[in-house]
Every structure is written in C-alpha cells, then in structure tokens.
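Sequence only, no structure available. Ideas?
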Amino acid sequence: MDSFDIVIIGAGPAGLFAACQAARLQARTVLLESGDEAGRKLLLTGKGRCNFTQEGLSAQNLQEAFGPKGRFLHSGLAAFGPEAIRRFFDERGLPSVVERGKRVFPARGDARSVRDLLLSEASKRGVRLLTRCPVRALAAEGGAIVAAETDSGPVRGKAFIVATGGCSYPRTGSTGDGFRWARDLAIDVVPPRPSIVPIRTAEPWSHGLNGQILKNVGLTLVRNGRRLEDRFGEMQFTPFGVSGPIAMDLSRAVGTALEKGGTVRLAIDLKPALNAEKLEARIQRDLDKLRRRPVGALLAGLLPRALISPVAQEAGLEKEKPLQGFTREERKNLVATLKELPLTPTGLLGFDWALVTAGGVSLKALDPRTLRAKAWRNLHFAGEVIDLDGPTGGYNLQICWSTAYLAGLAAARSARG
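Reply:
I predicted one. Tokens follow.
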C-alpha cells in the first residue's frame, strides 16, 4: 500500500475528526476502518439524534463529571471545547439546539447528519477512507511506529493515531483492539469495564414491570449504609432490572461498589419534590378524603398503577384493607417506602449493552497537550480508547472532539516537520 503522513485507525467520531484536523494542515491522511462504513456507533448516540456536546462545559463541570481525571482534559477543552464544536458544525450548515440538561443536538435531530458532515469534510480535505480494512497489529522500530499491519499488507506512515473506541457495542466495531496494541507496546491500560449500561436487579417485581417508565424520580446508590451518589430524572424497568438515563448514569458507580463488596442497594425516591414531612401531610389529607375506601385507592392517587402492588408489599400494606383502620405506623412505613423504594443491584448488563467503556489507555502514559504516548515518538490516541468516560449528556462525545483535535494537529505537525 501507499505511505502516508498520518495513519488513523478507527473511523468513529474521534477518528473522523482527527482526520479532518490533520488534513487541514495538508498532511496526507488515511483512515482505516474495520467495518463496511464509518461512524456506525455515532449513528446510535442520543437515541439516533446525536447529543454531541454539553453546553458550557467548564473546568468545574469537568471536575464534577470526571473527578481527578478531569484535569487531563483541560488542555483539550481550552483548545477545542463545546462552543468550538458547535461552531464547526454551524459553519458547515448544521446548526444545533440546546435541550433539557444543557444537552446539545443537531437542529435536524439526526445523528446521520453529523456523521455525513464529518465524512464530507474529510473527503474535501483529501482524506482517504479504507473500509473493511481491519488492522491486525502495529509494527514498531527504533522507538516509533512504522506501519499498521492489515490483511492487504502494511500501511506505512510518519505518525499514527489510534481511535478504535473501547469495548462497548462490539457489533459497531468497538472490540478493544486498541487496548491490545497498547499492551503489546508496553503502554499501561486500565482494565476496561462497561459504563452507562443497564443494571441487573434481584427483585422479581422489578422484572415484572418491564417497560414501565418513571419520570422525575430520584435514584440513590447506597453501600454499607452510606449514600454514595444520586441522580434525578427518568428511569425504566426492564426484564432484568433497570435502565434509562439516571440508572445508566449510576452504573459505573454501581459496578465499582459491587466490586468492593458489602451491602449495596439502590433507593428510588418516587416523590422527590416532597420531603418526608410534607409527603406525610399530603397522605393525611388524602386519608381524610378517602376514609371509606380501601388502601389501594390511596396508593392509586400516589403512584402509577404498575407500582401499587410492589409499594404496598414493601410497605407491608394490604390493598383491600379499609382506610378507616390506617394506623400512624402504616403511614410512616408508606412514606419511607415512597421516599426509598429499595432495589438490590446484582451486576451490570455488559459491554454488548454499554454506551461507553470505562478504563483504557492510562492517562499517565499520554501527553495531555498532544495525546502522544510518552514512550513512542509518533503514536497518539484519541476518543474512547483513553481512560476517560463521563455521564450521559454529551460529555463522552466532547471527549472525542477535544482529544481528536489535539491528536490530529499534533500528529500532522510532527509528520510534516
């Protein structure tokens, strides 16, 4: 095959964007994609609408979303942050809109429009895209990478960018190859694990609520009696447990808590707008109106129909019992259950269902200004293959844009001298 200035492995969001940046500096760039089309996973993001960034992402937001790892992204966000990617798309005819939770989407509401724009931009700048071209290994010589080994022969280059993603949604091509190559090159890799993924639960009643959506509820993770993290928003019951934005956002922390052991549980706050005192007062008012009705009538005014039986069982209430005999203790039990309906997490669903991968190429092994591996003078990494993952809401695609921007420009400057 030909020799190039820049060889980029993986034509997902990070690979496509890095190619656009490298080619902008007139670097001869090739994109190697194992599948039959580019950006397959990008088409699935944001339920097919592509929530491509988070508005106003600041250093403080980073620290809150990523913890200590957020510091690694400071250079990338300073160079190319949320406003920059919105401007990039807008200048090329794809304006964006901000929705609930500061989530930014293309105004057309279509992930394909984002993917196609990136492909068009790369093509205009002369990037060569080779699909159905899986890379088997990286060939190294004298402290540098010299070629990407493919079934059609070696693809040689002056600089290389690995943007192969993680292990999540392997049917889209994310099979962890980048982690294997990094280990082969003695680059430290934090063990990958699924993140933003549905959670398995033990309770049979939760499995029986398959498809039931709860909006505007709270979800808290508790380990050994200590509240670790909480979320507010929407969740959904599944045949195996819980899913939806707030459950999947908590999944990484749930996985970590289960690995540490001890007593781990989730608590659903079905009435987050009311504290326990105000909720009890509301229940008392309902009791005054419904004295001649059964307990089930009281619960029907508080809950979706599907949750009446589980809540009654957890609170120790009989649905057919007349409310005339409703005791103070029963009222307290109901309040406690509505504020903390317990679920027992038993595990995560796995990489086949995970939106992103936690873990990856260690941040300590990379220069945060260029995304170059410190041990290799011409090897860069970008996107999900790096040990950075954030919550839902555009954080993870912003990681792709910011790291790809730095890697693409740095690799091109190095290759072009």
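The chain has 13 helices and 19 strands.
Hope that gets you unstuck.
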